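Page header: ASSEMBLY MODEL / two components / 849 residues total.
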Amino acid sequence: MLSMSFRQGGASLTAFALILLTFFAAKSDGSAMADEQKTIRAVMHAALRVTDPLATTAYITRNYGYMIYDTLLGTDENFKIQPQMASWSVSGDKRTYTFQLREGLTWHDGSPVTAEDCIASIKRWAERDTLGQRLMEEAKSLEAIDGRTFQLTLKRPVGFVLQAFAKLSPYPLFMMPKRIAEMPFGTPVTDYTGSGPFRFVADEFKPGVKAVFEKNENYVPRDEPPSWTAGGKHVKVDRVEWIVMPDAKMQVNALRAGEIDMVEHTPFDLLPLIEADARIMIRAIDPFGSQIMGRMNFLHPPFDDAEVRRAALLALNQKDFLQALVGNPAYYRECAAMFICGTPLETDIGGQTLLNDTMEEARAALAASDYDGAPVVILQPTDVGVVKTHPIVAAQLLSDAGFTVDAQPMDWQAVVSRRASQKPPEEGGWNMFFTIWNATDLLNPLVNHALNGRGTSGAWFGWPDDPKLEEYRMAYAAAVSDDARKAIAKDMQKYAYDQVIALPLGQFLPQTAWRRSLSGVQDSPIPLFWGLSKN
Amino acid sequence: MTGFVMRRIMMVFPVMGFVALFVFLLLHLGPGDPAAIIAGDHATPEKLAEIRAAHNLDQPIPWQFMTWIAHVLHGDLGTSLLSGLPVTTLIASRLEPTLVLAFLTLAFSTAVALPLGALAACKRDGIIDKLATGYCVLGTSVPFFVVAYFLVLVFAIELRLLPVQGYPDAADGFGNLLLHLVLPVATLSVPVIALVTRTVKTALLDVLSEDHVRTARAKGISEASVIVFHGLRNAALPIVTVLGNIFALLIGGVVVTESIFNLPGIGRLTVDAVLARDYPIVQGIILLAGAAHVLLNLAVDLLYLKFDPRVRYQ
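Prediction written out in full:
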């Protein structure tokens, strides 16, 4: 027994010594320090899985697009459209737009960016993007003039050409090499060649785990200071790693320990853990944040009746939704603007009831309607933090107003599947669901999908069939002055509230946390990695 | 003996066939539409039909199953619906962390549990036995995430001795990799040690009360030799069975531990694929996990031959 104890003791000592050795070997490895300063590790809000920016509206894929692709035009922090890859001129009759690529633009493989590449990219984009489709309907021709110049000729003057080319989201117009742009849709994009400030490191890509970007040494930034997607995209680090960390608490722990440099969206309930940490900076870098949105199904009772929809609108108020999701008023904003508060089209017309408690009016309106007590089927996701509180709040408020509510729990992807069903609720359909939109997707009538009135063939889920909405959108598209656009947007919002087309349930500001060793973090609706440096 | 081995091997095929069919039906008959998930916010009926056609999701279920099986038999598990990458590539890229974690956990747990269980059995009702029993109850009762967060708080946040998370490339330093695995291995080992300790103790107590052990002691053989050569060897069957099952479980992916410590293993891949309704990945993983279970059980059965000669004659 004694000899056994000695052997065990010896083995334990050896194991302990080995652990100590490996510990100090790793700790004393200073060679990695220099590399550390050239690599930014960021935990993004979601995992990158799809690498075709036109195959999905997922924000992470859009953000990936901004890393490796460049855009013809950019949008700056004043919503002004600026040249990026190209400058432009417009003919006197406003029907011909000529775009000229700046000199020195090359793809990641070293070949020059040409006008033909851009035309192929525009055509691919226009197949997917509704604004692009509308633009192509207005286009008479799109052709190359020379290697660096191309021309878009319209059938009639419209006011949204530059807006479309510079749009932030969804489906920004990224430039791709012609060989990629001409691939049929559905073919996975595994050629990651772009002309953006970063290049994608395909060998290190692990979907759902990590995406790695390296500085594009051949990129020629513009001279202007960076501002959103406009200006000079100066990359100051060698490498950016987007790390997926499924556990939110460990994101915060890893940030505190210095293992990562940034958490794009820090859960609100974990912010108190790091607010007092002097090494960490917390700020909403996206000035507009996201909007909670409720959506009714216009195809089936009871929400096929505008009176019932109005009663439901009266029952809901933004404060309850925002309190449940965020809690701290510093991180949210009650805002009835369908085109987002803080933007040129901001107005609260028609939506004041969302900012007040109007439950009594809701009960009266419901009692006066033809509502027969049929259950309202609400899709209730239980697994995704930013969407799981809304159905619970809505169910309570609608019940209080007199609705019979059937909240059906499921995971978020089941919601995503089921919301696409146009069947009646009792056959696997639904009456109401909730989501969040990044503000950039709602900025005007042309990009705001919730206000599309093209029914079952083209509207967003819920499928309102409302020609008047389309008239507003057409008018906005044709408008050529800012004042005219504002007036149309205001009228459209008033009408949309009257018909209860969409339910904006408040704006909240996701908080980005980063270590103070990072500098150059820019405020922008899109997370930008150019301009960032690390000490 | 050859017949025993052949019978065991032949049983693998119907079991795997059943697993394949079960997994396929479970996924395809369950709620969720990959086409709607791929289409995202622009899921018009036309686009959904286009996506379903592109991925053959509009074909009858039996046709889809037969097509999938035909590809599987050729070693092709299909491609991910979302990323478009081959499933075999995705699984291969996630195997290493899971295997390393499983091996280290099993090795560490066995190294601790074997002597602990033996000591508890030898000193029955003594202080060691009572402590071991208490640990076994605690170790199997405390959830993984509680252990994990506690270890991280103490060793990574407060003491700053170990990293919080991650799985660095072994090529960048094996020591660094080991350091990153200390906390996950410790977390997983807590219940595994408890389970194995209890198994060792129970099995050893049964053996130590048998006649041949009494005879060995009467012959004056040292207590250590009695425990190791007469006790543990004859108690090996249930211990090997438990270790085999634990290893198969660990290979199948330890979702919570992998998620907390950000280890890019099979468990996380499985959960991600299930949530995204990425059928080919889920089917591929469960098929491989089923194969791992079946093959490990086969290996355990074969080990029976080594440890218990009676099996050879049955």
